[in-house]
Amino acid sequence: MIQNENRLFKFPKFSELIIHEDENLIVINKPPFIASLDEREGGEVNILRLAKKYHPDAQVCHRLDKETSGILLIAKNPETYRTISIAFEKRKVNKIYHAIIGGTHTFQDLLVDLPILNQGNKNVSIDRANGKPAETIFNSIKYYKNYTLVECKPITGRMHQIRIHLATQHAAIVGDDMYRGKPVYLSQIKKRGYTLSKDEEEQPIMKRFALHSKHVEFELNGVKMAFEAPYPKDFATLLKLLDKFDS
């Protein structure tokens, strides 16, 4: 069990997360609420530790924010780790994320090109003078009355890049309180017939921000590879409820 702010989260077996495995590489669909690597606090379960139990030489090739779900690449040997790390550095890995944002936004190949400054302690800001170059392309996939499902293609790989770039467009990811994204409550979208007992406090439909690493494409040892990760339960549930009550 993993304790997080809102509830106990039962973690599945590492082997159940795997969507592809060969002699060099493990590709997993990372669940939310678990860090990719060791965080400073120490004792917490993370993907790297679980991967090393499964395969002693495992190395996580990149990272996803703790709350972000989706595709994560894990190398089984140092050569593969090096090759994939260099591919990420040289921007030869095509990544597609899906996000649910507040408001109706029509993005058609919208390029957000705003430099990001990492201030340390997981804080970043847009800083045109001192920030590092950061580019993301956004396309709207599906429109609701009050929300939009968006495809996000980060060209660079800065911390919180998608989250802060969306926030600059007044299109923060739902549930992303760091960037003023508001959570979605069933009572907001289901106007009729929603009741809550007197002592009950309503919980948001998703207890995290709605960001999922959907698709990754790259080349490894001359072979083109592409992987897709289905939405986790909470993300799929939110979309289903938006389909039902907000479309």
Automatic annotation (TrEMBL):
GO biological process, one term: enzyme-directed rRNA pseudouridine synthesis
Organism of origin: Sphingobacterium paramultivorum
InterPro entries in UniProt: PsdUridine_synth_cat_dom_sf (IPR020103), PsdUridine_synth_RluA-like_CS (IPR006224), PsdUridine_synth_RsuA/RluA (IPR006145), RluA_PseudoU_synthase (IPR050188)
Family the entry assigns: Belongs to the pseudouridine synthase RluA family.
UniProt GO molecular function: catalytic activity, acting on RNA; pseudouridine synthase activity; RNA binding
All copies of domain Pseudouridine synthase RsuA/RluA-like, residue ranges: 24-167
Protein's recorded name: RluA family pseudouridine synthase
Superkingdom per UniProt: Bacteria
